[in-house]
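Shape matters. Shown next:

___
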Amino acid sequence: MTAIQVQDLHKSFDSLHVLRGIDFEIAQGECVILLGANGCGKSTLMRCLNGLERPDRGNAYMHGTDIATADARQLCQLRRQVGVVFQQFNLVQNLSVFQNVLYGAMGEQRFGLLATLSPLANDALRERAMYCLERVSLADKAKHKCREISGGQQQRVAIARTLMQEPSVLIADEPVASLDPSAGRNVMNLLMAIVEEQRMTVLCSLHQLELASEYGDRLIGMKAGRIELDASRDTVDHQRMASLYQGDVRVDHVPTTHHERPVTASV
């Protein structure tokens, strides 16, 4: 069963053609690692998949819903099923770890923000938030403000917040890029263990080739707005992965070819 399907996806910002006809599918429960250099279009693809950007042409289906044409109600329903982990942790630094995790349930609550404020949250939500913190080994940090804990711990809080959401799909945009190698590996080990337990469908972008060679079922590689690699992880060697970072890799260095029609960004 297909969880994510992308067909001829294009996205431009003014005259810059970023996504140049992206096609791939991800099966339900499959974990895919997305590779590519800075400026190749990975983050724009991620933003199109979580509804933060609208593609200009093509389709992006998530559990059968076309994100490209979904209305506000459909996008809201879809976002409840899709957890997102960013490179920047996107935590409220002056609030407690516990409160940040509670916010993960905001989309499912009738009164949204109010229902997930720590003093007002019901017992079921509070118990769930503590379980999520226990799962990432941070229950002892529940009362700490996020600014008081390390970067690796903050990313684990972000993962706990995503767990609180109970998503079926996880999109992780370079989740360990801002961490040192040891903390990054610890976060990846934790993330992949949770993914396997929860049987989530995953698209996770990485820069670190040594990590990409160890995690996930499949590798998709981008170069200058196009997919250059799509294969089982076990069949891809280091040299082939490294080639994604060599030559013309950025969309702003490779002009639209003569047979492509430039796409004007939606206003």
Remarks:
- Residues 92 and 200 are 26 Å apart (CA to CA).
- DSSP finds nine helices and ten strands in the chain.
- The radius of gyration is 19 Å.
